[in-house]
Amino acid sequence: MKNISAKLISGLLVLGLSVGLISCAKKGGENVDPSLYGGDAVVGITQEPSVFDPHTVVAAGDKEILFNVFEGLYKFDSEGKLNPCLATDVEISDDASVYTFTIREGVKFHNGNDMTIDDVIYSLNRAKELVPDLAGISEVKALDDGRVEVTLSSPNSELLSYFTVAIIPDEVEDINATPIGTGPFKFESYDIGQSVVLTKNEDYWQEDLPYLDSVTFKICADMDAGFIELQSGSIDIFPYLTMDKANELDTNEFTIQSKGSNMVQIFALNNAVAPFDDIRVREAINYAINRDDIITLTMDGAGLPLTTAMSPVMGDAYDTSLDGTFDQDIETAKNLLAEAGYPDGFDMTITVPSNYIIHVNTAIALADQLSQVGINATIEQVDWATWLDDTYTNTNYESTVIALTSNYAPYDVIARYQTGADGNFINYSNPEFDEIIAQIPLTTDEGEKMELYHDLLAILTEDAASCYLQDPYSTVAVSNRLEGYELYPMYVQDMSTVHLAQQ
Amino acid sequence: MRTSLQKKTRIYMAVGFSLLAVILVAFVISLTHLYVYDPNSTNAAAKLLPPSSDHLFGTDNLGRDVFARCMEASKYTLLVSFCGVFIAFVLGTLLGMPAGYFGGITDKFIMLISNSVMCFPGILLALVAVAVFGPSLFNVVWALGLVFAPTFARVYRTGVIGLSSKEYILHAKVLKVNPMRIMLLHIFPNLVPQLLPAVVIGLANMTLFESGMSYLGLGVQPPHASYGKMLADAQSYMTMAPWLIVFPALLLVIYVLGLYFLSEAARLSFGGERR
Amino acid sequence: MEQAKYIGKRLVELFLTLLVVSFLTFAAFSIIPGDTASVMLGPNATAEQLSALRSQLGLDLPMSVRYLEWLKGAFTGDLGNSYAYSQPVISLITDRLPVTIGMSILSLLMVLLISYPMAILSGRRPGSLSDNTLSVFGHVLFALPPFVLSMLIITLASAAFGIYSVGRYVKPSSDFFGYLGCLLLPSFCIALPKIAMTFKFLRASIIEEKASDYVRTSKSHGLSDVSIMFRHILPNSTVSTITVISLVLSDILGGSLIVEQVFNLPGLGRLLLAAISRRDFPLLSGMVFYLALITVLLYFAADIVSALIDPRMRNNREGTL
Predict the structure, then answer these.
(1) How many CA atoms lie within 13 A of B36 on its CB side?
(2) What's the CATH class of domain A39-69+183-259+474-503?
(3) Mean pLDDT, range C49-74, rounded to an integer
(4) Partner-chain residue, chosen from C38, C266, C276, that has the shortest CB–CB distance to A389
(5) Are residue C268 and residue C289 in the same domain, yes or no?
């Protein structure tokens, strides 16, 4: 019953969202309503910001704030589409080795200076050193007055989404201390343990945006604390709610939005460690677990079950034929375990970062489900720093539960499974996979490329590389005091379109 | 006057034991697996059910039976508090007895160390120890044992100093009886009246500390149940599922209350109204 | 003269205790597993970067040198920068102090304002109905962990009536009364069990004093019960309760660490947990040391005060700090 109501709500939301978009598009035109402007909004966040340098930032919680301060040559919209931003156009050479951007004119930085070609070149050169994904850039140079040519050391047709990297002024020495960008909001202040305050960029290049005078990202100890603040009115927008919490809210006061977040929650099995080096054991585990139950238990039904390394929200690159591959089948699981030489199961450890309740709860549910096939799983909670260090980086673990986030680009989602790749923390290795993925950057035909993605996903599923569990919906509650909030299928908060509701 | 005192002791004792009985029964059931539900078994079809004849205390957000989890929690509570008090008791004996018996520089040194340890707010010390060495049942137990050891050392020291001036102890000292022998055979039995209330209060305090640490996620680790962790998890469902808070909170309070009553009874029966 | 000698002796003890406390703090954070430098630099650090950072942080120096450096820093208020926040440890701590200290003071006031009337009422006629009721009540309070109490109160207040919003915090500099208002409920949750504790000691002490000779003498001289209570019994009982109150204060400090978390207040408790999860050892050791320092000074003050009021106390408490 709860499931159905959750689905209904998200269905309604999609409708509401598209209506919102249409009205937004209309607003962008000639008749701008002055009564929409002004006001403030408070967004609740649950992690302490740490880095404001857009080129070294890694934490998703920092990125979602900086999305409002910095912009790149291209920018994602709430549909996951890439749109020109600080560039007006791009030309990609036929062999995908040269990208030529036309730079937008009349863009001002928050310090009042004009954005010039020099700033763009400076930023891309800096990003090339600091952002691993852009390391393939070999040369950045100015062509004529308004164009920048980026040459790659090897062809890559999948790089455009990385040109969302921030353009920053070349004269600023310490961008982390003085975060100056071109975005709709200016960085005003950061009060440790309290809040990050952004104020309106009056000179924003999209003249009718933003609406609000200021946005405060308020730091809450945890989701519960934030939720209570939301109810009491001291927070207007609260992302990353659970569905059961959201259902508790008064619909007269709040609007709930929910959709797939392009996250992949994975029950990662370390392929380099026995017994998970045996494909039969990995398959058995995949058959032993019940994804729908896990989604019901951990997300109150608000998640998309996954059998492969990509979320369906990625569109064409996702292969729907893989749906349902690992429906729960205890008998098959037991047989596979017996074949692998573990008729009575075995002991294993699930390492989880203690700060993520959803992963801890998932681990609890997994341990319970695995006990049905005789596998005795112990849960070990570690703090986030230890998890990053021991589990993720040094892959010193048996199994773990985590959600993988990536850019809204299929290549970024699965690149980590190449042998020896950065972020291949499950130690997966398959020469066939490596061979196919190497072709993708060289392929310029879209249809052909999608075929290759489908092949890659099929290989990951066949190899049961790990247990892919779900794409947890991202659910956000917005006070009805505000309108125009758009939920992205990625970890950002776009405050530029938000405005006060009209009475 | 004398009879009314005894009556009061009896009342305290009766109340204390009957309160404790609730937890003890749960403990026994949890050991024998008599109850139908496994405390860790999740059930997607039974999320957040209110109390009913099926699930006496209702179910939690993962569909686990709260009654079964309370029983498991009482098991860990008893385990942690008894082991912790044992460690604190042994350490306290090793420190406090010689300090009181030998006096002088030994006393000064031991008391300096144990007073210094006492200067750290207890919960802080336990939290840091567990955070640093990793949250596990074992670490919780020794950290709590360490934190509480100086308390016992003090009880010993004061008691031993009081007894040392007693005639028979002085005699034994003059006759050069082995100090170990004096301490164990002559001093220790006479300290029981002071030690017993301290042990019972120690059990109660340790339970409170353990639940506080588990509340902060640094105590008993999931999926295992502990009162503190159950309450911390329940906080998200405060309005939706109040039974998740009410039952564990009630049991925790009943247990600690029972211990306080018992310690009061012990104090009254040995020492009377005076401190 | 004798008092000066006593205070001098206590000062030596204070100094020794501080030395041990500081050494324990430092040692605890030195034997911790895990390499600080690699935690700070993250996964992709090279060996050169690691050793450079280690020498920059002084991690390659011998332990005795590091201890002396640290000790010097602790007393001059310069404990270096926090790893996680890259801000001076001392300023991080002082930023959070208003919450923790404010809560502690409020709690202490509540403890005194509530436990005294209770104890007077109870100790006036031991064994009476009001005494028994209050005693039982005290036991129940004793058994209530502050965080359980906080949760119950938050549930009631904010969810049911919408009175109290968790996480609301106003800086004392901007609105002093608003600040007090934010701390009122959490302080009450911390205070309740301590009220029970203070009540218990004070009551016992009042009963003891009442049985003493001078009270009986005063009574035979025709002094009224009320004036005996307030002129003689209470002051004397207070002296013997001062030590308990200093213990209560250190418990209050510890309790506020947890209760802050339940109420989502930006105090030392939250900073402590953040420091723990980020393995921020300069910050952690600084907080542990300063909290212990406060406690040591409290105990010391309690001893000195009771010695000044009542010379008898001196001999009783020698060597127990």
Answers:
(1) 5
(2) alpha beta
(3) 77
(4) C38
(5) no
In a domain, C249, yes or no: yes
State which CATH number among 2.60.60.30, 3.20.20.140, 3.40.190.150, 3.90.76.10 fits the domain covering A1-24+70-179. 3.90.76.10
| Chain A positions touching chain C (beta carbons under 8 Å) | 48, 50, 192-194, 220-222, 225-226, 228-229, 231-234, 354-355, 383-386, 388-389, 392-394
In a domain, C89, yes or no: no
The answer to which of A307-311, C149-153, C288-292 has the lowest mean pLDDT is C149-153
Contacts of C109 (CB under 8 A, 6+ apart): none
Q: List the domain range (segments joined by +) for residue C16.
A: 1-84+278-321
- The answer to whether residue B178 scores a pLDDT higher than 50 is yes
- Under CATH, which number does the domain B2-269 receive? 1.10.3720.10
For residues C135 and C141, give the distance between their C-alpha atoms in angstroms, rounded to a whole number. Answer: 10
**pLDDT tens digit string along B86-120?**
999 999 998 888 888 888 888 888 888 888 888 88
DSSP-derived 3-state class of residue A484: coil
CATH superfamily of A264-472: Dipeptide-binding Protein; Domain 3 (3.10.105.10)
CA B166 to chain centre: 32
C223 contacts C216 by C-beta, under 8 angstroms: no
| ipTM, interface predicted TM-score of the complex | 0.79
Average pLDDT, chain C: 79
Q: Does B208 touch chain C (CB under 8 A)?
A: yes
Distance separating alpha carbons of residues B238 and C150, to the nearest angstrom: 12
Residue A440: closest CA among A460, A406, A412, A462: A412
On the question of pLDDT at C202 being above 50, the answer is yes
Closest partner residue to B222 (CB to CB) among A293, A294, A381 is: A381
B132 contacts chain A (CB < 8 A): no
Q: How many domains does chain C have?
A: 2
CA-CA distances (angstroms) from residue C257 to A132, A189, A313, A453? Answer: 41, 27, 43, 51
Looking at the fold, whether C19 and C115 belong to one and the same domain comes out as no
Quick check: pTM over 0.80?
no
CA–CA separation, B222 and A379 (whole Å): 7
